[in-house]
Amino acid sequence: MMKHYDRQPVSNELEGKQALSGALLDVFLGAGGSIASTVYGTIVVMATLTVGSASEPDPWKLAGLVAGAALVLWIAHLYAHGLSESMAQRHRLRWAELVNIARRELGIVLAAVAPIATLLLGALGLIHEDLAVWLALGIGFATLALEGVRYARLESLGRAGTLVAIALNLAVGSLVVALKVTLAH
């Protein structure tokens, strides 16, 4: 006969796995206030892919451009938000406050992970280089659509509101892709 305390570690293990998977989804897809950084990072990635692929079709270099753009803009956001919060609170930020800002804005950098991985698949010859760029843009569209859904759920919007949120996010992404098509021709 299994004792109650024998089952507890299994329950804790399951809860731990669920918490980890939920945390990973929150980190990669944004949660609460971090949705803004994920949407912003996704648009930065898509814009960098668009402009970069027109001038630099090499997927290795394009992956570097995307990573560099995301990292530089993340640092700029940390600095700007740090200054703003320091002024609003009328004191120099403590380390914990700066770490909180870094976590909140981490979506900018994390939005680049999957597109960069896709570009690297193209660089390694596992998929065609042009396909890698289009798939990376597709990942951006998927992220924007998911963020529209997450926003609608957080705001308790109905079906129509959810469709509007998705449409607005995809419209911004479409403008970026239209830019790519225009620059490529």
Q: Beta fraction of the residues? A: under 5%
Largest sheet: none
Number of DSSP-assigned strands? 0
Order of helices and strands: HHHHHHHH
Low-confidence region ranges:
1-8
Number of helices: 8
- Average pLDDT level: 82
Give an account of the 3D structure:
The chain is mainly alpha-helical and 185 residues long. It has one domain (37-184). Helices cover 84% and strands 0% of the residues. The protein is built from 8 helices and no strands. The chain has helices at 4-29, 34-55, 59-89, 95-104, 107-110, 113-123, 129-154, 159-184. Helix 6 runs antiparallel to helix 7 (129-154). It is globular. Residues 1-8 have low confidence and may be disordered.
Describe the structure in brief.
With 185 residues, this protein is an all-alpha fold. The chain has helices at residues 4-29, 34-55, 59-89, 95-104, 107-110, 113-123, 129-154, 159-184. The chain has one domain.
Keywords:
disordered N terminus; single chain; mainly alpha; 8 helices; 84% helix
Secondary-structure topology with pairs:
Elements: H1 4-29, H2 34-55, H3 59-89, H4 95-104, H5 107-110, H6 113-123, H7 129-154, H8 159-184
Helix pairs in contact: 2-3, 2-7, 2-8, 3-4, 3-6, 6-7, 7-8
